[in-house]
Write a structure and sequence with these properties.
Blueprint lengths: L3 E4 L2 E3 H6 L4 E8 L3 E5 L5 E6 L8 E4 L16 E5 L2 E3 L3 E4 L5 E2 L12 H5 L2 H15 L33 H11 L9 H13 L6 H16 L6 H11 L5 H10 L5 H12 L5 H18 L2
Parallel strand pairs: 1-9, 2-10, 5-6
Antiparallel strand pairs: 2-6, 3-4, 3-7, 4-5, 7-8, 8-9
Helix pairs in contact: 3-9, 3-10, 4-6, 5-7, 5-10, 8-9, 9-10
Length: about 300
């Protein structure tokens, strides 16, 4: 059998720390430009084509233009990691010398100035509204207050997400329960919205006015992950622990620094281009998180 050999372009920091010699990973799901492997620790590890952006649990590889993982891997097959090489049936990925992606600023203990971040809210909201109109984006959750959405929502009108700083535990529980697994997509709309909301709160989660709401939210999401599918469960579980994709980390790092509106718009666009609708839902949740942060001032 001919083996297609790749050299990794980058390895996410969680992927790099999880792989040990003789680990056996089972193919969980296959798509044209990516494949998900089920690691013995219970989490997924993804192989992505080079045009994807970095993820904490992903390995990016330079696949050729006509490569389709659905023709090169099957659910249930195994891959083995040994001596820095991930070897599957008919393919291999060399990880030695591949750079490790890690969003250093995201893990800084230095809390960025909240007013600096909030001043970019209008730019982000404008970018989201413009993108949705141009792309005819669809979602089963309301993306922005007062903005009309596509008529193609399965749930008409789309669900208005109710998350506020002063929510009681009962109300917060009800909203999280309603959102997890709700909507369309490989990762449902409600899940992506919650992920973006958690990302917005993360840098300021230790502030006295935010801490209780943030902790309760993450505890509730963590306790209800069984309500959604495996892939979405993986991303939500990582978000609960503060692990997000490169586009989200980059946008959040820009929000806490002196930067231009053009840079913010470009970073927001990179977030929204993730998946068919996941990025749009995520940015909408992030904006909701900024509104919650504003209410803490």
């Amino acid at each position: 059998m001919t083996t297609s050999a790749f050299s990794a372009l980058s390895v996410g920091y969680l992927a790099a720390s999880r792989l040990s010699d003789w680990d056996r990973l089972r193919v969980h799901s296959c798509f044209q430009r990516s494949v998900n492997l089920h690691h013995p620790d219970g989490y997924l590890l993804s192989l992505l084509s080079g045009d994807f952006q970095d993820l904490p649990d992903a390995i990016r590889i330079p696949v050729v233009g006509d490569w389709d993982w659905r023709h090169h891997a099957r659910v249930g097959q195994y891959a083995t990691f040994h001596h820095g090489v991930l070897q599957g049936e008919g393919w291999s990925v060399v990880l030695r010398r591949a750079p490790c992606w890690r969003p250093e600023r995201w893990f800084s203990d230095e809390e960025p100035p909240l007013p600096e971040a909030l001043r970019h809210y209008a730019t982000l909201a404008w970018q989201l509204e413009q993108y949705c109109r141009q792309q005819n984006s669809e979602s089963d959750v309301q993306l922005l207050p007062g903005v009309e959405q596509s008529r193609y929502s399965r749930h008409s009108p789309p669900r208005v997400v109710q998350l506020e700083l002063g929510d009681s535990l009962v109300r917060l529980t009800g909203e999280v329960t309603a959102l997890i697994g709700y909507g369309r997509g490989l990762t449902p709309d409600g899940d992506d919205y919650l992920l973006g909301y958690m990302a917005a709160l993360w840098p300021w989660r230790r502030q006295l006015a935010i801490a209780a709401h943030d902790a309760a939210l993450r505890n509730l999401i963590g306790s209800q992950l069984s309500r959604t599918n495996d892939i979405s469960r993986h991303y939500l579980a990582r978000a609960v622990a503060g692990h997000f994709s490169e586009p989200i980390c980059h946008l959040m790092s820009l929000l806490g620094s002196a930067t231009s509106s053009a840079q913010i718009q470009a970073a927001a666009l990179a977030v929204m281009q993730f998946g068919a609708s996941s990025g749009v839902d995520c940015l909408a949740g992030l904006l909701h998180g900024l509104r919650t942060l504003r209410s803490s001032l």
